[in-house]
Amino acid sequence: MRVKSTLVAMGLVAAFAVTGCSATSNSAPESGASLTIAKPDGAIATESNNPWIGEASGVKLGYINAILEPLGIVNLISPSDPVKPWLASEITWSADYKAVTLVARDGVTWNDGEDFTADDIAFTFNLFKDNPELDTAALGITDVALDGSSVTISFAGSMYSKQDKVLHKLIVPEHIWEGVDDPATYENPTPVGTGPYVLSQFDTQSVELTARDDYWGGDLAVPTLYYVSYNDNTALTTALANGDADWAQAFIPNVQSAYVDKDPEHNVYWAAAGLAVDTMFVNTETKPFNDVAFRQAMNLVIDRDQYAEIAREGSVPVVSSVTGLPTPVGDAFISSEYKDEDYKVDLAGAKKVLTDAGYTWSSDVLTDPSGAPVTFTLSVPQGWNDYVTGISLIADAAKTLGVVAAVDTPDSDSWWEAKGTGDFQAILHWTDTGATPYDLYSDIMDGRWLKPLGESADFNFGRFDSPEATAALSEYTNAADDASRAAALETVQKIFVDEVPAMPVGTRPFIGAFNTRSYVGWPGEDNPYAPADPTQPTSVLILTELEAAE
Questions:
Q1: What is the DSSP string of 280-304?
Q2: Do residues 142 and 215 share a domain?
Q3: In this protein, which residues make up the domain named Solute-binding protein family (predicted)?
Q4: 295 and 412 co-located in one domain
């Protein structure tokens, strides 16, 4: 084990000395440096290794992706690449993408020694079918048919836009989970997986994983993984710069001087474009964002160039298209109506929208048609430096309209819960990415995510309720030809532009910071085989590609 010099690591060592192992452990290679994988989320309050619960420690830190594995790997930064079979050795889609047949890979064992079979795939997808709350991608599974080593999964609609959501599902062992009463709340304290690593220690500051010596994918270069949670981005950047952390998915202020230049031979920061954005989700069920006129006005005063330059410090491209799609990766999907329409700060236009809707000003304070002053609160977790700066910039933009916008930075756990239940007025969050714009728009507008206020939603946090948008999104993903798909997308984009269900503020590429001092084989511009993001289910591919540096 590599001894760390930070207080966090000292506490980690002490915790390991007094706590027992929390999972089955296999002996690891005796040589090789450990790898520390980091997040800026503060102390890990409780342990949960449930792979389908967003707030579970295994999901938030990403270590569940080294224990459990997907069926196949879709390269979301190069979606035209062939799918890489993983736990499924063969993947065959029907012509209409309403069914997929998967052949279970031979020679795979769970980390408790049991054989992996097609039964485990079938069992996992039946869990999603019988417990819709686990199916956060809303796959709409209608049937799971087992035939020897093959499983055919059928869906109510086309999975054309969701192939990655199907294939990236993490598979769990039937012999463990069949005895679970409530899979939605099960904490999975001793996670049994087919993946290359096993959970060996858990602590509120870090998690230790140990390499298996019987992994089906072969020998592993890295013997030990530490997943560490630092208090904020500043602490994480310091850890990356001085070598206490080796790999992270996090925004780094002044990345060139603060990180890359500290060791230009080994420190790498790579932002790979995808179809995703940072977005201000607004609560469309409560004031002031329940009024489309106010949403339109706010959208007109947000300065996206300023967000990219100041909040993201020039590390990501500006989101410019009024459709919210990142360019140039999204150019082919922008409808002809909006090809040349970009976001521009237009204070005069925003004030006209408000005046036409019955708003007035009293001593430069905006009042709504009922005569009440307009105020709202923007919220992101403390320590998320780029997002904190981002909401401060948006608050400044709101002031130009005469609106007082307060900035709130709670701890990440409280914020996460409030985000899901709709207990907010405005937050910054991200959209998922995929091979098409479907995920971006669905996350913001789709009625399939709708939950009453107080119930936790997985997306559409702002409770935007548009049956027309929901229908168009369904038509897009189920279309039988490109022309029908394009027509549906035009409808989606028109609703998005006109009704402003949320406000994209910046592009959201896949970000990875890592060093090559101990290991090589990382993805990058010269070999973009996967996003360099340790929280993605595709990170298992990276872990198996790493080799010791000479």
A1: EEE-TTSTTTTSHHHHHHHHHH--H
A2: no
A3: 83-437
A4: yes
Amino acid at 139: L
Last residue of a domain, which of 142, 172, 189?
189
Global pTM value: 0.73
Q: What is the pLDDT of residue 3?
A: 28
Four-residue CA torsion sign, 486, 492, 493, 494 = positive
Number of domains in the chain: 3
Residues 293 and 176 in one domain: no
55 and 130 in a common domain: no
DSSP-derived 3-state class of residue 237:
helix
Distance CA 212, CA 227 (A): 17
For residue 55, is pLDDT > 80?
yes
Same domain, 96 and 131: yes
Q: Are 532 and 273 in contact, with CB atoms under 8 Å apart?
A: no
Under DSSP, is residue 101 helix (H, G, I), strand (E, B) or coil? strand
Domain membership flag for residue 205: yes
| Residue 26: pLDDT over 60 | no
Q: What is the pLDDT of residues 301-342, one digit of tens each?
A: 999 999 999 998 887 889 999 999 988 778 889 999 999 999
446: Cα separation from own chain's centroid:
17
Task: Give the pair of three-digit tokens for residue 466.
Answer: 């548009």
**Nearest Cα to 197, choosing from 324, 110, 94, 325?**
110
| 349 membership: H or E segment, kind and range | helix 347-356
Q: Name, in order, each residue with C-beta under 8 angstroms of 306's C-beta and a sequence gap of 6 or more.
A: 393
CA 238/CA 534 separation, integer angstroms: 19
Predicted confidence band of residue 31 (pLDDT cuts 50, 70, 90): low
Residue 21 has pLDDT above 50, yes or no: no
Token reading at 547: 């080799």
Cα angle value 65/226/381 (rounded, 5°): 75
Q: Indicate whether 237 and 297 sit together in one domain.
A: no
pLDDT of residue 479: 87
Q: How far apart are CA 128 and CA 107, in angstroms?
A: 26
Token pair for 473: 């999104």
Phi, psi of 209 (to 5 degrees): -120, 145
Query: What percentage of the chain reaches a pLDDT higher than 70?
Result: 94
Instruction: Give yes or no: residues 351 and 403 share one domain.
Output: yes
Assess contact for 412 and 277: CB atoms under 8 A.
Answer: no
Cα separation, 486 vs 335, whole angstroms: 8
Q: What percent of the chain has pLDDT over 90?
A: 77
| Domain around 354 | 273-509
Cβ atoms of residues 66 and 194 within 8 Å:
no
User: Given a cut of 50, is residue 18 above it in pLDDT?
Assistant: no
C-alpha closest to that of 534 among 519, 516, 548, 514: 514
Which amino acid, one-letter code, is at 379? S
